[in-house]
């Protein structure tokens, strides 16, 4: 059994594992886990921020914020939930089970947050007892995964910046291969904001494929802005 599932107060763990659908079908089975989920979300955001602040003293606020988002996004928290065995223990209603609840990333991530909140309460709100468990999970995420996820929405974020000024013309990406072998090419991309038909250069990026080069260019543009 994973350390995060070792509780003194078993009723807290039971509540953390109980989805609203289960309570709806079993009214006498206590509370669902949504309040614990709220608490766990706040704790994970704090611990991930603290972890990254210590791990990367050279990085600025924007980069740390993006990395924190990557560590505690729904997809990653769902993986943590499976890693610690929550998918085998969640209490779901029959409807949620039939809808594939045991494999639902949103449900898994929410349950993980609830368990984090419950563990914190079970240990008399002593976050020092929770920190090493959570940091071990954070450390298990490969660096390239964190970097990749932190850039996932860079194009969308740049698009939002463009639109914030009332410009409805999409950014222009100009991508070309600049080197590498046929099986390991290197692409470079320039990104332009188009204002009244005029192209304004905003950033540049490189990647192993056109998609990665475009994301890197958008990230560079956001940094420049």
From TrEMBL:
Lineage top rank: taxon: Bacteria
Active site residues per record: 41, 113
Domain annotation RNase III: ranges: 7-124
InterPro entries per the UniProt record, alphabetical: dsRBD_dom (IPR014720), RNase_III (IPR011907), RNase_III_dom (IPR000999), RNase_III_sf (IPR036389)
E.C. code: 3.1.26.3
Any one Gene Ontology molecular-function term assigned to this protein's record: ribonuclease III activity
One Pfam family cited in the UniProt record for this chain: dsrm
CC cofactor: Mg(2+)
Top enzyme class: hydrolase
Region (Disordered): 204-225
Protein name: Ribonuclease 3
Annotated organism of origin: Dolichospermum heterosporum TAC447
Gene it is expressed from: rnc
């Amino acid at each position: 059994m994973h350390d995060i599932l070792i509780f003194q107060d078993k009723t807290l763990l039971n509540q953390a594992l109980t989805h609203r659908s289960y309570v709806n079908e079993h009214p006498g089975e206590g509370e669902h886990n949504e309040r614990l989920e709220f608490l766990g979300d706040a704790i994970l955001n704090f611990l991930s921020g603290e972890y990254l602040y210590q791990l990367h003293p050279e990085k600025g606020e924007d980069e740390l914020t993006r990395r924190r988002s990557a560590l505690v996004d729904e997809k990653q928290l769902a993986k943590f939930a499976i890693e610690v065995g929550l998918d085998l223990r969640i209490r779901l209603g029959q409807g949620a089970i039939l809808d594939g609840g045991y494999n639902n990333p949103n449900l898994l991530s929410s349950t993980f947050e609830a368990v984090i909140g419950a563990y914190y309460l079970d240990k008399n709100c002593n976050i020092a007892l929770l920190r090493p468990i959570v940091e071990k999970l954070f450390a298990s995420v490969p660096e390239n995964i964190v970097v990749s996820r932190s850039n996932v929405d860079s194009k969308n974020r740049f698009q939002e910046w463009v639109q914030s000024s009332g410009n409805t013309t999409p950014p222009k990406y100009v991508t070309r291969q600049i080197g590498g072998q046929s099986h390991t090419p290197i692409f470079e991309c320039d990104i332009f904001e188009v204002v009244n038909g005029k192209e304004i250069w905003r950033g540049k990026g490189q990647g192993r494929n056109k998609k990665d080069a475009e994301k890197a260019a958008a990230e560079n543009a956001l940094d420049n802005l």
